[in-house]
Amino acid sequence: MTFRNPSAEEICALLKRTRNIAVVGLSPNPARPSYVVAKAMQGFGFDIVPVRPKVEQVLGQKAYGRLEDVPPPIDLVDVFRAAEFVDGIVDQCLALGVPALWIQEGIVNEPAAQRARGGGMTVVMDRCIYRDYRTFCR
User: Fold this and answer.
1) pTM to 2 decimals?
2) Model confidence pLDDT, tens digit, residues 92-129
3) Topology of 8-137 in CATH?
4) Nearest 5°: CA angle at 53, between 43 and 124?
């Protein structure tokens, strides 16, 4: 079975009900895509929670080493990690009961995405959350 993303309407509905975004792999380097995207989403009013070991804070927010350390609620996990790390992130999201997973543009792990969806999560894969928010929801 081939993974299919939600429709534009479903993506917009997801983003409209999202407030807290845990960004796994959020870099403190302003030149990195994760920083640029998270800063833009923060500017749109989303609460960004950096998940990155060995970093104290990013974008003025306390950083956490693991998803398990993030205080609830997490409405959506946005992944900026290589495809081989997505399986473990899905495991963590399912254990925590996270309702939605966004796997950023250029990152594809269909089995992990299908497993997350099978576990009841809304999943978007290989798309840019910033671009989709601007295109579908503004």
Assistant:
1) 0.97
2) 999 999 999 999 999 999 999 999 999 999 999 999 99
3) Rossmann fold (3.40.50)
4) 55
